[in-house]
Design brief:
Elements: H1 5-16, H2 22-47, H3 55-81
Helix pairs in contact: 2-3
Length: 85
């Protein structure tokens, strides 16, 4: 029986064992407002999982959704204008 594990490690190790490129880091930095807004929305939704949502929680979720939409709109506008905002 032939063992192929060593051959697979050589083939797959290169793609996974590297640092992010400058372009990838720039893309993450550009999308960071959207990421943070979505995390805030997720936090607001998680709070309501084990409790009855009150008016305060509902407002927090609505506010978080608006922030996500605003961040996505800003990101889309940057893409259309070429980043010159």
């Amino acid at each position: 029986m032939k063992n192929i594990a060593a051959l697979q490690a050589v083939v797959t190790a290169d793609g996974f064992d590297r640092e992010p490129t400058v372009a990838e880091l720039d893309a993450i930095e550009t999308e960071m407002p959207v990421i943070l807004a979505r995390v805030e929305l997720l936090d607001a939704q998680i709070v309501t999982l084990d409790r009855t949502p009150t008016e305060l929680y509902e407002r927090r979720i609505r506010r978080s959704r608006r922030r996500v939409l605003a961040a996505r709109r800003e990101l889309a506008n940057q893409a259309v204008t070429g980043g010159a905002a």
